[in-house]
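Researcher: Sequence recovery benchmark, item below. Answer with residues only.
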């Protein structure tokens, strides 16, 4: 599943090309892509007719377009929430350019300078979705308005308002293993299995260490490591192991070349040379160095 860096790469690509554009016609080609939408395809298609895209936002792994009816004098509170799921792609191109058999939704846009673009939602595994919804105040008390489905999602380490000291105090109250806490999107968002493993390796913390057993400074170091790892991943265009994750131009990211532990079972640890261990963890896997990350 795309994590924060991959979703941010998509957000930046969309923001650069469609901010200020008007959605003039949307067609839903597969009902699963709008399964969360009250009224289904009919409501989504009607709600995306003649609306201006004011901004493209993200929190954690969630992406949304802030919308205003073109006839309105000021900004609205409606938005198009996009979740990429396991394989969702937001592709931009000429009308009719995307012909994938996995095309689920397409929307015709007219840019501020009068050009026509088509925004295509391609999703091979059909776990992704679009949903037209209202923006409400986020649960973090900031007053920032987010889609209702995202209100409970915490800030992520790359958000300017993220307070590592404050989040570390919350983490240290959790009785779970530290990796499980890192993946809890209500505590800290945007971190998935790949970047959890990479952050824990960078901070030399075992994934099964209890959060309550960690010192405040060590948790802050771990959160700083997560921010640093994801910043580097973002600069590399994200992590791609196959062609399911691509940016808006269809290009893959190449941070997979810089991974230290994830997917490197049996290979030497870049820090000490010990073979990396892969361990079953819930329905996933954890990758770590048994020497650098002692339990």
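Model:
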């Amino acid at each position: 599943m795309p994590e924060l860096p991959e979703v941010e790469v998509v957000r930046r690509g969309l923001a650069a090309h469609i901010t200020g554009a008007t959605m003039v016609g949307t067609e839903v080609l597969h009902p699963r892509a709008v399964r969360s939408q009250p009224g289904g395809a009919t409501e989504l298609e009607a709600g995306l007719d003649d609306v201006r895209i004011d901004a493209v936002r993200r929190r954690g792994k969630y992406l949304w377009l802030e919308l205003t009816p073109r006839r309105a004098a000021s900004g609205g509170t409606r938005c198009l929430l996009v979740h990429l799921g396991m394989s969702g792609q937001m592709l931009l191109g000429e009308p009719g350019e995307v012909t994938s058999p996995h095309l689920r939704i397409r929307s015709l846009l007219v840019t501020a300078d009068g050009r026509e673009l088509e925004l295509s939602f391609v999703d091979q595994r059909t776990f992704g979705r679009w949903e037209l919804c209202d923006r409400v105040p986020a649960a973090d008390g900031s007053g920032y308005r987010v889609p209702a489905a995202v209100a409970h999602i915490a800030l992520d380490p790359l958000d300017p308002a993220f307070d590592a000291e404050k989040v570390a105090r919350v983490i240290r109250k959790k009785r779970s293993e530290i990796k499980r806490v890192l993946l809890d999107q209500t505590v800290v968002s945007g971190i998935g299995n790949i970047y959890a493993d990479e952050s824990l390796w960078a901070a030399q913390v075992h994934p099964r260490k209890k959060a309550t057993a960690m010192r405040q400074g060590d948790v802050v170091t771990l959160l700083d490591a997560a921010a640093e790892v994801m910043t580097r991943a973002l600069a590399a265009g994200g992590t791609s192991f196959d062609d399911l994750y691509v940016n808006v131009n269809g290009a893959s990211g190449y941070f997979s070349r810089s991974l230290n532990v994830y997917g490197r079972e049996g290979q030497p640890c870049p820090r000490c040379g010990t073979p990396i261990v892969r361990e079953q963890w819930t329905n996933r896997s954890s990758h770590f160095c048994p020497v650098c990350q002692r339990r």
